[in-house]
Structure formats: C-alpha cells, structure tokens
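QA checklist item 7 of 12: single-chain prediction sanity check.
[x] sequence parsed
[x] length recorded as 203
[x] structure emitted
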Amino acid sequence: MKKLAVMAMPMDGLKTGLGLYMYRFIKNLALLNPPFSVTLFICKADRAFIQELSFPPNWDLKIIPSFCSKSFLNIAWIWWKSCTLPETYDRVYYPALNRRAPFSFSEKNLGFLHDLAEYHFPKKYSSLRNIYVKKVIAHQSRHVPLIIVNSQSTAQDVTEYYQVPSEKIRVNHLAPEEEDYYPIDRERACQQVERYFRYSPFL
C-alpha cells in the first residue's frame, strides 16, 4: 500500500484561511478513505481541532511537542524531518508551502501554495517574514516537483516571483464548504443587505 505523509502545520488555531484549509483537507480526505495509508504530523496544541474527526484504520497520527509549534522551532523541525521522510513515504505533502517548505529536494515532495501576499502587501508583514518568504521559501519552492495553487493569479505569482516553471504548477480551485456557505431565501437576503449595506442595488 502506498504511503502519504502530511505535514499538517501550522493550523493557526483555525483562525486563518490557511488553518481552515488544512482542517478541511484532513476532514475531506478522511471521508474519501483513499486506497493508501496516511500519516498526519501535527502539533500537540492542534490535536483538539481534529479530535472529533473519524479516521480510517490505515491512518496514523504523529503528535509533535507543543513547543515545536513556535514558528522558528516548527520550521527547524520540518526542515530536519523533511530530510528523512522521503525514505519512508511515497509522497510527502506540505499543505502550507508558502509558510513551511521542505529543506530536502526530494522528488517525492509536493505542496499547496496559497498565495504570495508578501509581494502585494509587504508593509503588512515584518521584515523578517518578508525575507523568509521572498528568499528562503522562494529558493526551496523551486525544488518542489509539484506545486498546487488555488487560482490562476497565484500560479502567475509563483512563476513571476519564484521563477517556478509553469509545468510544475497545478491549479486546483477551492470549493465552498456547505456548512459555511449555503443559499438563503431572497427575503432574508434582502434583510441582510438592508441591515449591513447602505448602497444598492446588491441583488
């Protein structure tokens, strides 16, 4: 049976889009029950967020100490682990490639890169983070065989700013989660518009 390792960190307490993506990726992959084994590497502090999920019998959780959730230590731990995981797993998935990229240049690595906001809003982030994303992550991403992005815009950014060939990039648009995004009746929608917006027409 094929084996997949997932670096499920950082989950940001499910307070960011990246954290929510990671949680929903794990939840929906478990529901699909794919024909391969999955090992989730997750910080102890984030375990509570997936506690209620049901995992197939061929899934395994590897809990790393809470202190490794701190940014610098988390990056160092992932770099160290990325050098050995390809020896054990057929694929190693980094669902937060724009924050945590592998140190190893294995052909078994793949990652999801959500955006390159640091290039568009540099003043929003610290100088250290800008250097990390624009230099370190950029260099490491060039050696990831397959990068998945959520839009054509991000694909263009990865090609332009990271100099990653387009043939190494795949666009996979995110789908809305039904429990969070669902249609409401027109009367209620009109009430919401009247309450929160002062400009029309919106409908």
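[x] summary fact logged: The helical segments are 17-32, 71-82, 117-120, 127-141, 152-162, 186-196.
[ ] second reviewer sign-off
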